[in-house]
Amino acid sequence: xxxxxxxxxxxxxxxxxxxxxxxxxxxxxxxxxxxxxxxxxxxxxxxxxxxxxxxxxxxxxxxxxxxxxxxxxxxxxxxxxxxxxxxxxxxxxxxxxxxxxxxxxxxxxxxxxxxxxxxxxxxxxxxxxxxxxxxxxxxxxxxxxxxxxxxxxxxxxxxxxxxxxxxxxxxxxxxxxxxxxxxxxxxxxxxxxxxxxxxxxxxxxxxxxxxxxxxxxxxxxxxxxxxxxxxxxxxxxxxxxxxxxxxxxxxxxxxxxxxxxxxxxxxxxxxxxxxxxxxxxxxxxxxxxxxxxxxxxxxxxxxxxxxxxxxxxxxxxxxxxxxxxxxxxxxxxxxxxxxxxxxxxxxxxxxxxxxxxxxxxxxxxxxxxxxxxxxxxxxxxxxxxxxxxxxxxxxxxxxxxxxxxxxxxxxxxxxxxxxxxxxxxxxxxxxxxxxxxxxxxxxxxxxxxxxxxxxxxxxxxxxxxxxxxxxxxxxxxxxxxxxxxxxxxxxxxxxxxxxxxxxxxxxxxxxxxxxxxxxx
Amino acid sequence: xxxxxxxxxxxxxxxxxxxxxxxxxxxxxxxxxxxxxxxxxxxxxxxxxxxxxxxxxxxxxxxxxxxxxxxxxxxxxxxxxxxxxxxxxxxxxxxxxxxxxxxxxxxxxxxxxxxxxxxxxxxxxxxxxxxxxxxxxxxxxxxxxxxxxxxxxxxxxxxxxxxxxxxxxxxxxxxxxxxxxxxxxxxxxxxxxxxxxxxxxxxxxxxxxxxxxxxxxxxxxxxxxxxxxxxxxxxxxxxxxxxxxxxxxxxxxxxxxxxxxxxxxxxxxxxxxxxxxxxxxxxxxxxxxxxxxxxxxxxxxxxxxxxxxxxxxxxxxxxxxxxxxxxxxxxxxxxxxxxxxxxxxxxxxxxxxxxxxxxxxxxxxxxxxxxxxxxxxxxxxxxxxxxxxxxxxxxxxxxxxxxxxxxxxxxxxxxxxxxxxxxxxxxxxxxxxxxxxxxxxxxxxxxxxxxxxxxxxxxxxxxxxxxxxxxxxxxxxxxxxxxxxxxxxxxxxxxxxxxxxx
Lengths: 520, 502
Hints:
Shape of chain B: globular
Radius of gyration of chain A: 26 Å
Strand content of chain A: 15-25%
Number of strands of chain B: 14
Number of strands of chain A: 13
Number of helices of chain B: 18
Radius of gyration of chain B: 23 Å
Strand order of the largest sheet of chain B: 1-6-7-5-8-4-3
Strand content of chain B: 15-25%
Structural class of chain A: alpha+beta
Helix content of chain B: 25-40%
Largest interface: A-B, 145 and 136 residues
Distance between the termini of chain B: 29 Å
Largest sheet of chain A: 6 strands, mixed
Structural class of chain B: alpha+beta
Oligomer: heterodimer
Largest sheet of chain B: 7 strands, mixed
């Protein structure tokens, strides 16, 4: 019978019902006869070489119009953000909190995020799963370093059911001990599986060596074996209660809903929510440079591996940063796209790898900057040498005019696609709110990108990619790659790293407040 | 279903199509720390929610509620040179997706050239007569493309880019130049380089990946030596080494002809001017001889249960049970999606609830109808917790399938599965690139770009009886491959097959 409701509601919702396009004409039969091609029949051969010789110019520039974001507040402090898109009967909703896992010890945030959907005061874990399955939507719940969220995507007709589930899961998780133990067991097993994945070992190792012990970014979000074994349900309850409060919450909707309906629904569902969230200091960087005598290269041995996973890493930059756009441009040129320097060098020029990339994980504090690749064992040293040279070069030499202009153009022109789906749009709203960015962030970003100069690129590269702070991690066959690493001439190789942080690390986050930076 | 994402295990997902390069996450939160480490079961979104589930149906007649009305309008024309062109107009976002399918995949490879179709795909990005080496991506990046890649599966090879609406001509120029004149550029140097890139891809995703070669062992066991699916798309290192530039030329001349390709242009277009541009860029490419790719379904009949014992240096044992099932869109295909859903989609699904939730002997379980153009497999995969017994898991899987064979699933189970399947079909169509891909997929696999309505009907028409019948017909105990991966120190992480696989 839920089927009847769902599909009959669907059938009622205009547009025949889900016309997926605005083009009104009916589909032509697939067996349409071959159509004479004018170009083929017209005598084009003479001009043919000409028009193929050069890339065609684009048509008139598509002017980027970011979607209109509407805003309201409830008296309890909860913020409502809405982007209306009525072409399809689909709605994405996200209830988010503007802080996350960086407010607790290793693994607590991520564990809490998973527990949200493992039962509430009135719904069992199985019932939550069944209800979500039945309204045809997806339900997500999680806690990232900076953002906690519960989300759903549903057909418009099913919004009440989706909203009821999202709010119950976010506000009333039960944290039953049976479910806590289930998740604890799954998490401990996942931690063991890290040993199977060179990529996961690489991430785990580099976080542990680039952030000081106890720093909230020093472990994978799943935490450590030690932290998962000893954390208690009470800690999860406490963490949830301290963070999930309306004065730090945003309810975002994108899709087939009006502002008035969004406000009315949110008021019915969340106006009675009360309380004030705990203070939320954001992580600072901690000591950035390796201590005297610390080895710069850490090697995790994988006997027999025919490929080495390598990374050049250091603490990066916080999201709220006057250099944000310059960093986007710089990273894109260095390793953020296919035609980046790292990929063209390591993949296209030397064929050491399937791909080489770099990225800044922009968070409230300085999230990791990582340049990484999986390279053929015999060329581990050579590939690292090339990657280090590329990092060094962008800090010392100006990029070319061509690189700068191409990259800026790309970053600006790719903006519309960011809002193609309702779920991308709703999470973009949640993210704006989480970082405290203005609602016209995307309207004003093209102008900020246009202002970035070659000097800016070099300046931010030198400012953030400081050679003295760089750590190198290699996951590979020690017997084969150690001589190659030693030959790099950047010091000894630490092959006995103990990456599992000590028990003492499993305490609340350090409270170095990030230096205040002005939002752009 | 080939058409929809489904929670196949990692190896299957990888094998179903090989991308030209690993995409970089841009803009979105890069969960370096989180995502990498946490297995599927532990992701914040449980498998049941993350994967569009499969379908099932009511005991009550479908006619009780109005059928779902969904439309994916298109116009299809065929140029004189045989190129099929499918246009889809949609103005919601000012972008256009261009998606070319060549109707050739690893199923069409010559003997001792396993992996070649995919290696060839890489060559298509290296330049053509008027597009210089390593500039293909540069043109598109500068144009603001939001998705550029290519991928090869056993059945087809695709190339796609989504660009701002004013850059359609650029995308058509690039695609037509390599369709018309790849061989004016291809050379020994770039071929040798891409061969190494592909070998690195193989090292990364197969040779050094946990359980990385298990799928190859299964395919070799289930498909006879001469079956087009006997070997995986990624190929073998020896065959990749054996490939020559001459092979590139031969493959291009035979398969990369306009009369073996379909071009979809979808998004913010004016159809008349799009057609004029397509005529200009593609209409002048010469038709080739008929490509004659393999298209006949090849039925595989297993006559017994075969056991594969694999040793791998991994933390957790894995049990995988594989049946030979009907090809994509054939009768039974959608019903098997229903079976998969009832078994493993959602926490109260039968196998998830018993193995993961109640007994807690498994870390993860998935069931999946992996639909192919010529043949399919249905796989149940159980990753056990440390020290837990694959034999116990096998007993439970057998019990649950036997129950399903004996008694139809409940209306509620089939109802959930149906809704999951239908939203799984429809939600992705928000994205114009997904629509372009879907049109191409329906065109090749179902011989009708307008198949969406019938695809929906396949799932609307499921009933507890059809789901039960599919389980009874296609998942017999006595005709299947049972693979057990045992954690073994010193074995390859990708796995090694014991005893030659009989």
